[in-house]
Amino acid sequence: MVYLHMLDALWMKTIYGISRALKREVFLVDSSIDKLTLRFCVQSTVMLERILFKLWYSLHRLPLSWLHAFGRVLGRLYTLVPNRELRIAEINLGLCFPEMNEAERHKLRNETMQQIGCTLMEMSAIWFRPLDEVMGMICTIHGEEHLVRDEGQGLIVLSPHIGCWEIVGLELQRRGRVTNLYRPPRKESFGDQIKQARERGGAELVPTDNRGVKRILQTLKSGGITGILPDQQPKSDRGAEFAPFFGHPALTMLLTNKLARKTGAKVILACAERLSGGRGYDIHYLPAPEGIADADPLRAARALNQGVETLIKLFPAQYQWSYKRFAKQPDEMPSPYKKQV
C-alpha cells in the first residue's frame, strides 16, 4: 500500500553499495577502525544521499523522452552484473510464465529492468513538476465508464505496480475526494517533499494503521475514492489469505474485501501504460472480477489476484517482477527466493 517501495529500494541500494565501499576501504587501511572514522563514514554517506537526491531532483525539468532514455540505459547497465533484482525477476518469471523458453524469459527480464529504470527517472518529473504539466502527460484514458457509480457510493481503485502507477493516483484526484494510505520512506528527510507532491492535487494521505483505515472507511461511506496497491505481500498472515497468483500460492491482502463489504463501495482496476518514445501515458480502467467483496475470504483473495493478473498480462514488461511476491508460503513451505546451499 505504499507507492514508494520500489524507488526507495533502488535508492537505498545505490547508497548502500557506495557506503559499503567507503567502509571497506577504511577497514582495509586500518582494521582497528575507531569511532571517529566510523562517524566520518556515516556522515559522508548522509552527505552523499543528499547530493544524489538533489541531482535526481534537478532532472525533473528534462523532457520525458530523455528521462526514459536515461532510465533504459540504467536498466541495461543493471543487467550486466549479478544482483538481487535480476535474480528475483528471473525466479518470478520462471514461476509465472513456465510456458516461456529461457530466451523469452531472459528478454522479458531485461525489458523489465529497463522499465524499472524508467520508473526511477520519471518519478522526479511526476512528483516535482507542476500538476497541470503532469496531467498533460496523459494521452488517452480508456474505460472511464467504469468510474461511474451510484450517487453517494464510494470507489476503490486497485492499481498494481505496473507502468507509472503514481500518475494514476494524481489522475484520480481530479475525480473526487481521495484518501490513501501512506507510509513515509526510510529516509525521513525526503518524506515531506514526497508527501507534498502526492497531496498537491487535493488527496489526503493517512498513516498505515487503524486510524488511517478508519479515515478511509469514512471517505468511502461519503462517496469518496481510495487507491490501493493490491499486489503487495502483507507483513503478517492476519487479515490475509493464501490464494493462487499465476498458479502459485501468494499471501494476499483482504483489506479491499473488508472495505468493500463495510461500505458498499465499487471496486475497479487501473494502471498507467508507459508509452514508447517518452510520449506519455495511457490510463486504463477495467472492471474488477466478481467476488472481491465476497463473504468467503479465499474467494475474495482469488478474485483480487485474478484482477492483478489481468492487468499484468496486458503489459508484462512494465510489471515490477523484482518484488518478492511469493516470499511467504503456506504450511512452512520454503520460499522460492531462498538460496540453495
Commentary on this structure:
The protein is of the alpha/beta class and 341 residues long. It folds into two domains: 5-125, no CATH class; 130-330, no CATH class. Helices cover 49% and strands 14% of the residues. The protein is built from eleven helices and nine strands. The protein has helices at residues 5-29, 35-58, 64-78, 84-96, 102-128, 131-135, 165-172, 188-199, 210-221, 255-263, 297-314, and strands at 138-142, 155-158, 179-182, 204-207, 225-228, 240-245, 248-253, 266-274, 281-287. The strands form three sheets. A five-stranded mixed β-sheet has the order 1-9-8-2-5. Strand 8 and strand 9 (281-287) form a beta hairpin. Helix 1 (5-29) runs antiparallel to helix 2. The longest helix has 27 residues, at 102-128. The two termini are 34 Å apart. The model is unreliable at 1-7 and 21-32 (pLDDT under 50).
